[in-house]
Design the sequence.
């Protein structure tokens, strides 16, 4: 058992190529589960849905237990909000009575990408493009996760009282048009809680959307810690630190 634990620990936290591939595989699995959860809201194949839910629930539970087994700080892991999201997803998959009313919790799986298996570290090591555009990718990821999770809440709270919201796509459409300030007005949320949801979406979502636009249109920067003043962001072709003047040795491909 010690050998199995050591192998899993290396796969989860190691820096080898095999470990990075394993973590990329876990990210791909997360993406697959999110796609399945999205499709399930369309009720395309309800006959197979319950069996698929159980299978995914068992796989996610097994991965969660493996991660819990090899982690160094179990208390920190158990108190993490990402862990709470995983527990809710597992409960919604393995408890049909619970899932009938709270199936939207499955979309919380998207929150895993905010802290996904050292994904940022791996991408910085494997992709020069990501290292240059890290801020844009990170803000895009946060924005997408926010849209997915908020749309899930809109869907579950409005589908029984709002004739305009019948599928997850309707909720997604409302969320995107609201936080991009387009606001066509063909779908509005009903009731006082619905209006409160809309207020939260507008305040938080629009702020995040503007931050994303700022990251996209701001001049590109590269992350490199200055050895003297510790400034992190520099111009892509920087030779000296703008803050202290120290000569920098930023690795690049000459572009």
Sequence:
């Amino acid at each position: 058992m010690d050998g199995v634990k050591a192998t899993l620990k290396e796969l989860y936290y190691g820096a080898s190529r095999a470990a990075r591939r394993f973590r990329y595989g876990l990210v791909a699995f997360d993406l697959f589960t999110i796609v399945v959860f999205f499709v399930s809201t369309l009720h395309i194949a309800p006959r197979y849905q319950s069996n698929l839910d159980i299978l995914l629930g068992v796989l996610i539970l097994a991965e969660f237990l493996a991660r819990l087994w090899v982690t160094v700080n179990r208390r920190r892991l158990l108190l993490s909000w990402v862990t709470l999201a995983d527990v809710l997803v597992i409960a919604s998959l393995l408890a049909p009575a619970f899932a009938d009313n709270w199936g939207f919790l499955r979309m919380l799986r998207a929150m895993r990408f905010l802290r996904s298996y050292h994904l940022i570290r791996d991408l910085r090591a494997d992709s020069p493009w990501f290292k240059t555009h890290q801020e844009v990718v990170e803000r895009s990821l946060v924005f997408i996760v926010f849209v997915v999770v908020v749309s899930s809440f809109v869907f579950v709270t409005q589908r029984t009282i709002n004739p305009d919201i019948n599928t997850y796509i309707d909720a997604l459409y409302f969320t995107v048009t609201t936080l991009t300030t387009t606001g066509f007005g063909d779908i509005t949320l009903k009731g006082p809680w619905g209006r409160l949801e809309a207020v939260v979406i507008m305040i938080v979502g629009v702020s995040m959307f503007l931050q994303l636009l700022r990251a996209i249109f701001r001049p590109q920067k590269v992350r490199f810690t200055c050895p003297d003043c510790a400034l992190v962001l520099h111009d892509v072709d920087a030779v000296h630190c703008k803050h202290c003047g120290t000569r920098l040795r930023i690795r690049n491909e000459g572009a």
Remarks:
- The longest strand covers residues 221-223.
